Amino acid sequence: MHLELILLLVCTGLFTGFAAGLLGIGGGMLLVPFFTFIFTVQQFPADHLVHMAIATSLTTILFTSMSSVYAHHRKGSVIWKAAFMLIPGILIGAWIGPTLAAMMDTRVLAGFFGIFVTASALQMLLSKPPEQAGTLPGIPGMFAAGTGIGTLSGLVGAGGGFVTVPFLTWRGVPIHKAVGTSAVMGFPIALSGTLSNIYNGWGLPDLPSGSLGYVYLPGLFSVVVSSMLTAPLGARTAHKLNVRQLKRVFAYVLFLLAGYMIWTALKS
């Protein structure tokens, strides 16, 4: 692996780790565009660029989610009953998502990701809590919700927070408990989605060296290690700054990244 590629990946991890710690978000929506750019520069196979970016981004959550869950659990912010009701559907959906992605042209997948990130940025920018629709549904309803959340998360390579938190708050869960419960979803989404991405990319002859299915292992480990260095710094910085204003800035950054992915989808 070239030194240039290592430096690009490490810098990506440093930035996304800091942003995740600062704003309390997962790095998936940042990582996918950055991975797409880096893999393009390195001339990875065009047909698999976005698939690899999404798969590698999703796999990072396996390593970064546990500390977040523990922190939320210590604060009493996790509704474990709700989490366990969502997880079966999450596991199924997170397998389905990458399977659907594997059937999609890489440009279509890039466009879908761009639209999703645009919607997420609008949600962050407006910061309007959804109107509540009563209590949490029963087991069938939670299973269906988990399947939908897992499928979408597996498609875009994210931990599901931008879908899970609005769903839980819509069903009457206080926001801090919705965030804590949503954090629990990261690991099962990443586990099932990673296995699906390995399976769906297994044996493809033109993937670069170091790939495990669609997961690019050098990118995975470079980003995980470097992001762990800066995430605590981001969390400490959050207590000193106006995070509401930072989230607005971050929303505009997401718009730019979404624009890049949409441009990737439209270019010939």
From TrEMBL:
Entries under InterPro entries matching the protein: TM_pro_TauE-like
Location within or outside the cell: Cell membrane; Membrane
GO CC term (a single one): plasma membrane
Pfam families the UniProt entry points to: TauE
Transmembrane segments: 6-37, 49-72, 78-96, 146-170, 182-202, 214-237, 249-266
Mode of membrane association: Multi-pass membrane protein
Keyword Kinase: no
Keywords in alphabetical order: Cell membrane, Membrane, Transmembrane, Transmembrane helix
Family under the similarity heading: Belongs to the 4-toluene sulfonate uptake permease (TSUP) (TC 2.A.102) family.
Name listed for the protein in its UniProt record: Probable membrane transporter protein
Organism taxonomic ancestry: Bacteria, Pseudomonadati, Pseudomonadota, Betaproteobacteria, Burkholderiales
